Amino acid sequence: MQIGFIGLGKMGANMTLRLTAGSPDETVKGGHQVVGYDLHPNPDLAQAAGVKLVNSLEALVAALSPPRLLWVMVPAGNPTENVIKQLAELLSQGDVVIDGGNSFYKDSIRRARALAEKQIGFLDVGTSGGIWGRSEGYCMMVGGEEANVALAKPILDTLAPERGWAHVGGHGAGHFVKMIHNGIEYGLMQAYGEGFEILRKSQFKVNLHQVADVWQHGSVIRSWLLSLGERMLREDATLQTIQPYVEDSGEGRWTVQAAIEEAVPAPVIAASLFARFESRDTEDNFSARFCAALRKQFGGHDVITKDVTTKTAHRKM
Length: 317
Fold this sequence. Notes:
Blueprint: E1 2-6, H1 10-21, E2 33-37, E3 51-54, H2 57-63, E4 69-72, H3 78-90, E5 96-99, H4 105-116, E6 121-128, H5 133-136, E7 139-144, H6 146-159, E8 165-169, H7 173-201, H8 208-215, H9 224-235, H10 251-261, H11 267-279, H12 286-299, E9 303-307, E10 312-316
Parallel strand pairs: 1-2, 1-4, 2-3, 4-5, 5-6, 7-8
Antiparallel strand pairs: 6-7, 9-10
């Protein structure tokens, strides 16, 4: 199947490679044709089979056969807004725009309505998987009309692992479900971070890597996040090279706002969000180091690292 891809950074490039070349272990076959556009495309795509890079949105649209399917994978907010506005002027009746980024669900509802006036379809696809998605597959939560979901199904089937995507509702539902997913993620990460900090400060001199490893075998709190925690503790048991500064992508804030709007008590998610704020003013906070390192493990997010020789902090790309 042919698809246009806008945004070829960490996630977009890996998704493009999974669509064209399949997974690295060959358990998923690719075979799709991707026309890609990015101001600074990932260099790994330059010689990739099945990928055609173009230098403008106009060229991308011209290279696709109707009905066109275009996946937008750029940062939420103004970048996504600007791209979709430009596409609205370039596309034709029956084409479909997919927003696979972390957009605010109310923005997605508004964008769907604006595109519908031009008879252009829209899907909001909450996408989870981070930098591991190319090999493990992406979990995708899809919002929009059934006919447009059916058009995108071959793409979704390739990107996701078995049972890894679902049509969760109408416009906005995909990004709403992903927003709640990320709010839960905040709480899980905070609980792991706090637990490991208690272990680290206890009288027992516990080997944190050993505990993370044993908890992955039969424990009721085993998870992929804990598996990543075991990996990072194996590599750096103290996490002293990582500053206890935890960024938030915005979806934790939106989740707390949604909880207020729906009058749903969400003390764990709210507290985990506030803990991220607090981390930015605290030097000796192991739980914040743990959460910052986990974000790096699953999403490739920038972290603040410390040069243990010079005691200076810098952002690691």
